[in-house]
Amino acid sequence: KYDKQVSPTLRTEAKLGYQRFLQVKKDQYAYPNPPNPDVFVDVFYEEEKSFASASLAWSRWAHHQLFLGAELSTTKVLNTSLVDSDSVVYSHPVTAGIERRIYSLTLQDEMKLADNLIITAGLRHDNYDDIGSRTTPRLAGVWHRSDQHIFKAQYAHAFRPPTFYELSSTTTPSIAKSSELGYIYNGTNSKVRATLFHSDLEDTINFEPPPVGYLPIDVTVQGLELELEQRLSSRLKLTANVAYIDSEEADSKAQVPNSSSWLGNIGLIAQVHRNMDMALQYRGITGYSRESVDPRPNMDDQHTFDLTANMISAGKNKLSYRLGVKNIFDEDVRLPAPYIDFGPGFYTYQYDMPRPGRTWWAQISYGY
C-alpha cells in the first residue's frame, strides 16, 4: 500500500494485492433420498484473486473536494470437486479455470454549498468481462441544522453481478435503486438516529427448486430503523436499535420468503476496571416467513444473549484479551431453509439450518 500527501490539496493512494481462497466442507448435507439414506457430500473449492487500485483526492477549490479512483482485479477458479459419501463424483456447479476480470472507475465531487450544507455527487462505472458493464450514480446531502440536529438524504444505484455459482442459470446482474432519509440527534449524554429507507431491487437473484435454479425476481424493501446510545453513568452505556422491514415481491405482492419483519438489539457496556469492560448483548428477531407453497409453519421468534469481556494490559506494547460466551441460555436458533419438495414429507433441510448453541470463545492480540 502506498499513501502520500503530495501537497496540502492533493493526496494519493495505491494498493496492490493477491488473495487465495480455499473452502473445504466435509459431510455436508445435500438432500433427502427416500427410501435410501440421506445424501452427504464433500465440497472442495479454490480460487485466487489479484487486484490493483489507485486514487487521488484533490481539494484545489475551497468548496469542492474531488475524488477519482480506478480498480482492476482478476479472479480465477483453480480447483473444484463434489463427491458424496459413496465416492460418487458429481459435477460441481462451478467449472475450474473460469475467470472474471473487472475494471472500475469512480468519480465523486463533495460540494460545500454552505457552512452547514454538504452535497456529494458521484458516478461509478464497472466493466465485467463476462456480463457487461454498468454505470451507477449516487447523490447525498447532509444538513447540520445545529451541532445537535443533523439531517441526511441519499439516493443511489448499485448493482451485483451473478456469482460463479449463479452464472450457470443467469447472466443478468441485480440492480438496487435506494433512497434514505435520516435524522441524528447529538445530546450531551445521548445520541439518537432515525432512518427511513426504500429500495427497489430489480432482477434479484433468487434460488428456485431444481431444475429451475437461480431465477431473477423484482423485490421492494422499505422500513424504519431507530438507534439509541445513552450514557447512563461515567462507567455504564446503553445501546439499542430496532428495525421494521416490509419486503414484498413485485409480482405477487407477497412477503419475500425467508424474511423477517422485526429485529432488535439491546446492549449494556460497563467499565468494571480502568483496563477492562464487559458487554451484555440481547438480540431478538421475529419468525421468518415461508414460501406460499411451503407446508411448514412460520418459524418461532428467536431471542439470544451474549456476554463479552475485554481487557487491555498496561504498557507501551499492549496485549489485549477478549473472551465471552455466545447464546448464553443455549437457545435453539435456526436460519430458514428454502422449500424443495423431494416427495411427501421430504424437504431439503426440513427442520431448517440450526446455528451453534452456547459457545465459549477467547482471543489474544498484541499491538506495537
Summary keywords:
368 residues, two-stranded antiparallel sheet, 18-stranded antiparallel beta sheet, mainly beta
Describe the secondary structure blueprint for this structure.
Elements: E1 2-7, E2 10-33, E3 36-58, E4 64-84, E5 89-90, E6 99-114, E7 117-128, E8 132-144, E9 149-160, E10 174-186, E11 190-208, E12 213-233, E13 236-249, E14 262-273, E15 276-285, E16 302-312, E17 319-326, E18 334-335, E19 353-354, E20 359-366
Antiparallel strand pairs: 1-2, 2-3, 3-4, 4-5, 4-6, 6-7, 7-8, 8-9, 9-10, 10-11, 11-12, 12-13, 13-14, 14-15, 15-16, 16-17, 17-20, 18-19
Largest sheet: 18 strands, antiparallel
Unreliable residue runs: none
Order of helices and strands: EEEEEEEEEEEEEEEEEEEE
Instruction: Write down the Rg.
Output: 25 Å
What is the arithmetic mean of pLDDT? 89
Our estimate of the beta-strand percent is over 45%
The residue fraction in helices comes out at under 10%
Would you report the number of β strands? 20
Structural class: mainly beta
Number of H- or I-type helical stretches: 0
Shape: globular
Question: Between the first and last Cα atoms, what is the distance in angstroms?
Answer: 19 Å
